[in-house]
Amino acid sequence: MAKKIRNEGQYRQQIRDLVGATGCPQLRRLNTMVAVHYSQVCLQHLKRRRGLPATSVVSILLLEGASSELISLAQEVCDICSGDVLLLAPHLLDEFCMDVAWGEPVRYAIAWPRSCELEQMAAPFLVLDGLVSAQNLGQVMRSAVLLGITSVILTRASFNCLNGRACHASQGWLYEAEFHLAEDLPVALRSLKRAQICIYAAEEIHPKAVSPQPNARWALVVGNEDKGVSPEVLECCDDFLCVPQVRGASLNVAHAAAICMYELGRGLPLKKSVRRWL
């Protein structure tokens, strides 16, 4: 049953619980991202994924007067994750806006994702080398999942951008992927190479256009928005790809990555994967 929060004292305590309860040292040692997510479509994905493995939802804040559909959805998610649904007066929810213009009256604190073991993930791979815009990351991930790429390797800088803004930009599809936090990305890439995974870097300075690959045993590296793929990571790559453009390099990283992922996987059957790659 949803609880109503009307006074300032109750509100302050619930916000402290919402933001702080999942940020315990134990979760940080497990390399789990803790953030506040939002939007009804993200909640729908969370419900469909049955709360996600190794995930904690502390509570879901809704605007008092929220639709019965949204309250029911929030309750279903909280029943799965053992959280609480809290209804807030409008002036209280307005205070909890953080750094974005909230379009929907729902917020929830979530401990997600937990870093997976590389050996348990399926090819093909998306590798994010220092991508630091949550908006770009979310858009890249939405394209990746919809194109059948759900195994993602990230540097710490990119992993730290798996927040509410990224999830909203992905329209909740972020929840469909598995993530491996690579504190040393070249080490992770060398593990892929030993497993005969071909590693491609998306770099506009190279003249070779992206083309379909005969199997799923590949990884695409996408670099930082300004600096591109780091030199030490480029040394680990087997080949370099670009998206030819008539008027120069004007595509942003999300668009270029989507084209590369589509072209690399174009010759594969839908849902093609290699579950055991070692």
What would you say this structure looks like, in words?
With 278 residues, the protein is an alpha/beta fold. It has 2 domains: 3-114, 60s Ribosomal Protein L30, Chain: A (2-Layer Sandwich); 118-264, Alpha/beta knot, CATH 3.40.1280.10. The chain contains 11 helices and 11 strands. A 6-stranded parallel β-sheet has the order 8-7-6-10-9-11, with helices on both faces. A 5-stranded mixed β-sheet has the order 1-4-3-5-2. 45% of the residues are buried. The model is unreliable at 21-29 and 272-278 (pLDDT under 50).
Structural key phrases:
six-stranded parallel β-sheet; alpha/beta; single chain; five-stranded mixed β-sheet; 60s Ribosomal Protein L30, Chain: A; 278 residues; Alpha/beta knot; 11 helices; disordered C terminus; 2 domains
What name does the CATH topology of the largest domain carry? Alpha/beta knot
CATH architecture of the largest domain: 3-Layer(aba) Sandwich
Structural category: alpha/beta
- The quaternary state of the protein chains shown equals single chain
| Alpha carbon gap, first and last residue | 47 Å
Low-confidence stretches: 21-29, 272-278
GO molecular function: RNA binding; RNA methyltransferase activity
Keywords: Methyltransferase, Transferase
Organism: Cladocopium goreaui
Pfam family, one: SpoU_methylase
What's this model, at a glance?
The chain is of the alpha/beta class and 278 residues long. Helix content is 35%, strand content 21%.
List the SSEs and their pairings.
Elements: E1 3-5, H1 8-20, H2 25-29, E2 32-38, H3 40-48, E3 56-63, H4 68-81, E4 84-88, H5 90-95, E5 106-114, E6 125-129, H6 134-146, E7 151-154, H7 156-159, H8 164-169, E8 178-181, H9 185-194, E9 198-202, E10 218-223, H10 231-234, E11 239-241, H11 253-264
Parallel strand pairs: 1-4, 3-4, 6-7, 6-10, 7-8, 9-10, 9-11
Antiparallel strand pairs: 2-5, 3-5
